[in-house]
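FAQ
Q: What does a multi-component entry look like?
A: The components come first, one per line:
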Amino acid sequence: MNTYKIAVIPGDGTGPEVTAEAVKVLNAAEDKFGFKFEKTEYDLGGTRYLKTGETLSDETLEELRGYDSILLGAIGHPDIKPGILEKGVLLKARFGLDQYINLRPVKLFPGVETPIKGKGPKEIDYVVVRENTGGVYTGVGGNSQMGTANEVAVQSNVYTRFQVERCLRFAFDYARKYGKKARGAGEDNTLTLVGKTNVLTYVWGLWERAFNEIGDAEYPDIKRAYCHVDAACIYMIQCPEMFDIVVTGNMFGDIITDLGAITQGGLGIAAGGNINPEGVSMFEPIGGTAPSFTGLNQINPLAAILSGAMMIQTLGETEAAEAIENAVRWATANKLKSMAAAQMGYSTTEVGDMVAERIKN
Amino acid sequence: MNTYKIAVIPGDGTGPEVTAEAVKVLNAAEDKFGFKFEKTEYDLGGTRYLKTGETLSDETLEELRGYDSILLGAIGHPDIKPGILEKGVLLKARFGLDQYINLRPVKLFPGVETPIKGKGPKEIDYVVVRENTGGVYTGVGGNSQMGTANEVAVQSNVYTRFQVERCLRFAFDYARKYGKKARGAGEDNTLTLVGKTNVLTYVWGLWERAFNEIGDAEYPDIKRAYCHVDAACIYMIQCPEMFDIVVTGNMFGDIITDLGAITQGGLGIAAGGNINPEGVSMFEPIGGTAPSFTGLNQINPLAAILSGAMMIQTLGETEAAEAIENAVRWATANKLKSMAAAQMGYSTTEVGDMVAERIKN
Ligand SMILES: CC(C)[C@H](C(=O)O)[C@@H](O)C(=O)O
Ligand SMILES: CC(C)[C@H](C(=O)O)[C@@H](O)C(=O)O
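Then the predicted structure of the entire assembly, as C-alpha cells:
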C-alpha cells in the first residue's frame, strides 16, 4: 500500500474549516482506494505571526522538503501589512520548494451558475498553467529616495530561458496528456500562450521564441495559439471555448486565473496547485481567508476538496482523484444551491460529509 | 467662435471607416453648437510603414504638438512584427506628447447587451483612469545572452513619485468632478486604487503611500478604496456597481480596461482618451484594426464617435459632448440590434448618419 507523507497547513480565517473538509474527503478516498496518508499539521500564517513574529522559517521550509506533498488552506490576516505573509509564507514556500508551476483548471461544473451569459460546462473548460516562481514575483527591484518627492520604485519582471523552457515544457506535456483531443472534447490539443509581445518585447519576446522553438522541435502534435493578455480577458468572457490549455507568466497568470475563477462560479469552487514536478508540491484553493465567514461553518469547501484531488492526482492516485472530482460534480449538479458562502443550502461540514459519503459508496 | 486644430490619424484596417463616422458626427456638432474644427489628416500606421519604413517620425511628432487635439482610428497590421507599430507610433505618441492619463469609461449604454448576468446600466457605470506613460511600458530592460540557453530577459516596472502623483491628482480631481455623488448616482465620490501591494511591494507601496497621503491632505472629501488587481477582475464581473472612479498603473490598466470593455458590450462601443491635461491629447476607440471587417462597412463606429465626444469634452465643449453621448445613447436604446460588427442591423455609415442626424435635430 502506498503511503504519502502530507504536511497540512490549515492557515488563517476559513482556511482550517475548508482544510478539515478536504482532509475528510481524502480520508474517505484513502479507505476506498487503498493508500495511506501520514499527516502532520503545521501552524503557519497570520495568527501565528501575530503571536510569535514568525512567518515560514528556514528550518520549517527544510522540514517541508521531507514530505510527499503539502495541503494548504489559506494564509492572510486583516491586521498584517500587505506583503509580509505573502512574501514570508506563501511565496517563500512556492519559491523555496521551487514550485515553478501553478496549475489552475477553469472548469464549470454541472449545476454551477456562471455569471457569463450563454456559457455552460462545455464552453468553460480549460486549464491555466501559470509560471509560478519568476517574473515580477522575483522581488528584484527596490525604492530609491523613498519617501521623498524624487522617489523611484523599480520592480523588475525577470525571466531566464531556463525558467521559461521548463514552464513551457510542462504546459506542452500537459496539453498532450490533458488537452481537448486527449480528453475527447475536441480535434486538437491546443496550447495558447498569453503574453504581451507588442509592448513587453524583452520578456515576451523570450517567451514567444521559446514557445515556437520548443513547439516546432518537440511538440509538433500540439496546436499553438497566442493572444495578448488584454485580449485574453475579453475572450475568457466572450468565447472561453477557444481555450484548451493556456500558459502564461506569473503576474498575468495571477490575474487571468482569478478572472477564470469567477467564470467557473467563484472562489468557492476554484482549486489550484503549486507544482514542482520533480519535488514537493503544494495545493491550495484560490480563495483567501474570508474573515467575515470565519468560524461560521458557512464557507464552501469544494475548492479545498478539489485541491486535495489535484494533490492525489499529482501523487499518481488517478482513480481516487477522479472519484473525488466525480463526487464534487455530483454535489454541484444535485445538491448545492449556490457556490457562495452561506448560500449553499448546506453547511461547510455537510458539504464535506456528502462528498465523503459519495466516495465511500 | 472657438476654432480647434485637430490632427486626424485614420490609421489601418477599419480605422479609416470608424474615423470617418466620428468626423461626420463632430461636423454635425460643430454646426449645431457653434465651434469649428480645422482638420489635418496624417497618414500613419502599418500600411504606410510597409510602403516607406516610417513609423512616427520625430518631425511629425513635433508637428502634432501644434494641434489642439488628435483623433486616432486604429494602428496595426497583421504582417508587421508585434512591437514595431506599437512602440513606433502609438506609444511614441503617448510618450512623446506626455499623455500620462488614459481615460476609459466603462459604461453600459441602454439597449446594449452585456455578457454579464443580472447587470445593467446602473451597475456597469464607472471610469478607469490608467496611468499611461510609465510602469512597464517605459521600455526599461533588455535581453542578456539573447538566443542562448542562458538568456535573461528583464522588463522593469518603473514609477517615480512624480508620475504617480500627477496621475493620482488627475484621478482625485476627476472623482470630485464626475464621481457618483457629483453625477447624482450615489452618496460618495469614490476613488479605488487597483494594484498589487501584497507582492509588488516596491511599486505598489509607492502608489499606496502617495494615494493615502494625497487623499488625506488634498481630497478628504473623496472616499478611498483599494483592491488587488486579481480581485478587481473578479469584482468587475461579480459586483461592478462597487466601482466609481478607478485608478491604476499602465499594465494593469491595459488589462482591466479591456475586461471593462467586454462588460460594457465590447470593443464596438468602448472609447478611450490619451490625455495630457496641460498639452495635446489623443482620442481613440479601444478596438483594433479588425482586419476581417476592413472595407466592408460593417464595423461599429460608436466607440470612435464616443472618443470624438471625449475629445470635445476635453476641449471644453461640454454641451456638444453631451449631445453626442445622448445621441449614441438614443441609437443604442432604439436602433442598433447589437454592438458587434456585421450584426448591428445597420452599416457603419448608417450608424454615423443616424447619430449625426440626431444631433442636428
Ligand atoms: C496571495 C497572493 C500572494 C497570491 C498571488 O499573487 O500569487 C494569490 O493572489 C494567488 O493567486 O495565489
Ligand atoms: C496596442 C497596445 C500597445 C495598447 C496598449 O497596450 O496600451 C492597447 O492594448 C491599448 O490598450 O491601447
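Q: Is there any commentary attached?
A: Sometimes. For this entry: Chain A touches chain B through 64 residues (CB under 8 Å).
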